[in-house]
Amino acid sequence: MTNSIAEIKDNDTIFVIGSNTTETHPVIGAFIKQAVKKGAKLIVADPRKIELSKFADVHIQLKPGTNIALINGMMNVIIENKLYDEEYIKKNCENFDELVRLVKNYPPEKSAEICGVDKDLIIKAALIYANSPNAGIYYTMGVTQHTTGTHAVMSLSNLALLCGNVGKENAGINPLRGQNNVQGASDMGATPADLTGYQKIFHRESLEKFERAWNTKLSDRVGATITEMFKLIEEEKIKFLYIMGENPVVSDPDTNHVISALKKVDFLIVQDIFFTETCEYADLVLPAVSFAQKDGTFTNTERRVQRVRKAVKENGLAKPDWQIIMEIMNTLGYEKEYSHPKEIMEEISLLTPQYSGINYEKIEANGIQWPCKDLNDIGTKFLHKDKISRGKGLFMPVEYVQSRETPDDEYPFILTTGRILYHYHTRTMTGKEEGLNEIAGSSYIEINEETANRLTIQNGDKVRVKSRRGEIITRAKVVDTIDRDVLFMPFHFTDGQANYLTNTFLDEIAKIPELKVSAVSIEKLEEEDYV
Question: Model pTM greater than 0.70?
Fold first, then answer.
């Protein structure tokens, strides 16, 4: 997030796109509702009528995969009405003329046709956003899990820059991270091209810094992402796989392909706190401890580095992740001993510019938001305050491109997936809670009332859902919160598992799969068909 969670309450306008915030980030969702109660305007763009839609000044129920067309349409309205922040753009941005040229091709009528919405909604949303002194954008995987996800994020950045909402308190562009330490994992280099703090392995200066600190030679080759790894296993280019705190048999697209790869790889290690569906295919399972059984830090979605303290004694053979990794490292011949995570944080501070001023003493009482440059620095509430980090904010105009898989005669419906309030990711933890399972214990698929009537499907009926990759049986949930010919499934459940259906088409830049748009068919099952 460029800005902070606490700032939400003072936003004048909040634009939520591709995020069912009250269910997937309930604390932030509560802040948004508090802001609306104080008088903030709320724009919601989502293929479903989510809870925040009830509080919204504008709800744009767009077709899945059309985010870029919507944003370009909003910018067209803002530019045509000269509502952009001209002074801010002259001082802080470049490539504005290219943006103007591109969005001229997206009048609200055209964008509305692509998105399947009323053009007046796009115009209204644009005017609210542009006329707001402090407008914040909040998005999640409804924006990123598309083949054009990176371009959609660039489009949102264009919109924020256009109205001078970057480098300003109570505004900004704010991706909401999906799990408690996703930001921290990214910060620590858990992506194929990065060392800690997003220092690139292909930059010789960065690589040499780490080689000196660790007294070893490092590869400058960019690795593969998760989805790419499974393909490389099938091509026999990866023989060994180490999965830590991840359950791809449930979470990754095209489950049949994932299982096939896990069966094929020569040796599979899975490290986790519970025995997951992925552990079923492991040659070796390494038991790790939970968050409550270890010391360390988590970095949350607003860049806040916070202490995690051991409150419960570890049990059985389970060990903290850092200790497991250290022991494997030592066994493989690299001798480096840590006695406590505090020592690891000291090394992180030494090698990671954003964390330079962070140590356990400073975050003992409260967390600190990076960047924190030295021990006298109190951290950074919002980014780009004095100037844009790269020097100038770069407008990156991008065309709308339709999703890789679109409905046809054989698969006439769009399936989109997401999370629900009651479960966390693949239910590795929440699936063991009896109360949560009583509320939401098995899979279902949401279907519009009109579509259901056309297919003679009633609420609770068993249905078969097929895609080009697989098929599942689940129960229908007939709703009025989703458009005709669009279906929604939560991906948490192993019975009627949504990811048997989803596709593996990747965003060419970020390599994120297009989980939010798959073409499927659906049919009602009679009792004798599934007993």
Answer: yes
